[in-house]
């Protein structure tokens, strides 16, 4: 039986909760009833809640968002307690503040029986979920990063995620860990409401349903966990948090694409260790090559799963370093080459339409071929003809004197 607490002085909210408890019958019971709102919660009252030991609390926010402090205090003292909060209609910013403070669900006034019952069933499933009930998926993680900004990491990440979705029709998550301002969301024409910060703050009570509530879904079916849009909201992640975040993503998605940006800080060893494939993006410039070579020497060239794959981007024969120069300098064979087409790529970013969706684009053809390498031929299910048929050609092997293919 699910033990619950009711913390509310709002008669309409109390009436809705009592009706839900009656409907639940022997599935739930009240172990504590406090006729106060969240804004009246203090340490002593929170201690009473903790002592009663409920698994779920129906909590009244009060007349305005000032009750967020009470929610946060209760969440800090009882992190395993699931909070179903009711209150006034809130702005998007106000709702985000309530969720970040620890609420699992929020019900705006006026309270209806049906909506309250549906919310109760959602949080009840979280309260009774056990580790043995978690999905058995162990997804494949591909981290894309560079040693220098401006190499096109996000462009490749967004298109690769969509390519994998198109090729395999499996669940794909794009995890934006780049220390930028939500670039992946912008590139996909999306306006994320939540970020990885929200997931990390809710690790103590995360399950699949809550995790997915923090994601945005692109028209292609790719899911996005965004990075913060504001430097004010950005939170420095620890190695343990990155490890847990990727482990969580692997449990629920077949493919996880990590946008690491120019990610050469303390977290890179964790990303290397957690990734099945690492795509190192370089452009034909000496500073980029030097930085990447230094990073490889510093952090190691393998994590026990084989060598990293080098992606040569913005390449044009006769301009900058040659493909052979880069292979010789890094001691890695180049896995894919993307030509220099700044105007076209810039247009795709401005439109929020990843370039992989472009018809008869050489970039798309090479990206889809890269997606095939990542997925493995045994996982390819898409066999459509038409304009997509040109996207499935394998790229030519990098050779000395090879012509630029973009």
Key terms for this structure?
alpha/beta, 17% strand, 406 residues, Rossmann fold, five-stranded parallel β-sheet, disordered C terminus, 2 domains, 15 helices, eight-stranded mixed β-sheet, single chain
What's the arrangement of secondary structure elements?
Layout: E1 2-7, H1 11-24, E2 28-34, H2 43-52, E3 56-60, H3 68-77, E4 82-87, H4 92-101, E5 105-108, H5 113-128, E6 140-145, H6 153-168, E7 172-176, H7 183-187, H8 196-201, H9 208-213, E8 216-217, E9 223-225, H10 239-252, E10 255-261, H11 268-274, E11 277-282, H12 286-299, E12 309-315, H13 323-330, E13 334-339, H14 342-351, H15 362-375
Parallel strand pairs: 1-2, 1-3, 3-4, 4-5, 6-10, 6-11, 7-9, 7-10, 11-12, 12-13
Antiparallel strand pairs: 8-9
Written overview of the protein:
By secondary structure, the protein is an alpha/beta fold. The protein has two domains: 2-129, Response regulator (Rossmann fold, 3-Layer(aba) Sandwich), CATH 3.40.50; 140-375, P-loop containing nucleotide triphosphate hydrolases (Rossmann fold). It contains 15 helices and 13 strands. Helix 13 (323-330) links the parallel strand 12 and strand 13. The chain is elongated, with a radius of gyration of 25 Å. The termini are far apart.
């Amino acid at each position: 039986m699910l033990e619950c607490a009711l913390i509310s002085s709002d008669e309409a909210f109390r009436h809705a909760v009592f009706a839900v408890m009656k409907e639940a019958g022997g599935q739930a019971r009240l172990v504590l009833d406090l006729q106060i709102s969240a804004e009246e919660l203090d340490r002593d009252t929170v201690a009473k809640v903790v002592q009663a030991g409920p698994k779920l609390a129906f909590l009244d926010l009060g007349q305005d968002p000032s009750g967020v402090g009470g929610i946060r205090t209760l969440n800090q003292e009882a992190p395993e307690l699931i909070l179903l909060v009711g209150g006034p209609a809130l702005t998007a910013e106000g709702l985000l503040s309530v969720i970040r403070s620890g609420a699992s669900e929020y019900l705006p006034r006026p309270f209806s029986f049906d909506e309250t019952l549906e919310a109760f069933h959602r949080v009840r499933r979280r309260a009774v979920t056990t580790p043995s009930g978690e999905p058995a998926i162990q997804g494949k993680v591909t981290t894309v990063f560079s040693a220098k900004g401006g190499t096109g990491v996000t462009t490749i990440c967004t298109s690769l995620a969509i390519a994998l979705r198109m090729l395999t029709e499996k669940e794909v998550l794009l995890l934006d860990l780049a220390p930028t301002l939500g670039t992946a969301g912008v590139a996909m024409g999306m306006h994320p409401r939540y970020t990885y910060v929200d997931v990390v703050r809710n690790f103590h009570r995360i399950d699949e349903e809550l995790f997915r509530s923090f994601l945005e879904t692109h028209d292609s079916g790719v899911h996005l966990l965004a990075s913060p849009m504001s430097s004010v909201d950005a939170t420095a992640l620890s190695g343990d948090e990155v490890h847990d975040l990727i482990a969580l993503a692997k449990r629920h998605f077949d493919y996880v694409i990590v946008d690491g940006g120019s990610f050469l800080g303390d977290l890179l060893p964790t990303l290397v260790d957690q990734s099945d494939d690492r795509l190192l993006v370089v452009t034909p410039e000496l500073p980029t090559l030097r930085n990447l070579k230094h990073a490889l020497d510093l952090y190691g060239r393998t994590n026990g799963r084989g060598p990293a794959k080098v992606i040569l981007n913005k390449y044009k024969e006769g301009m900058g370093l040659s493909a052979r120069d880069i292979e010789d300098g890094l001691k890695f064979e180049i896995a894919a080459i993307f030509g220099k087409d700044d105007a076209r790529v810039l247009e795709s970013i401005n439109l929020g339409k990843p370039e992989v969706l472009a018809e008869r684009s050489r970039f798309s053809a090479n990206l889809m071929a890269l997606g095939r390498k990542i997925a493995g031929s045994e996982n390819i299910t898409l066999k459509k003809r038409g304009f997509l048929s040109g996207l499935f050609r394998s790229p030519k092997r990098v050779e000395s004197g090879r012509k630029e293919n973009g």
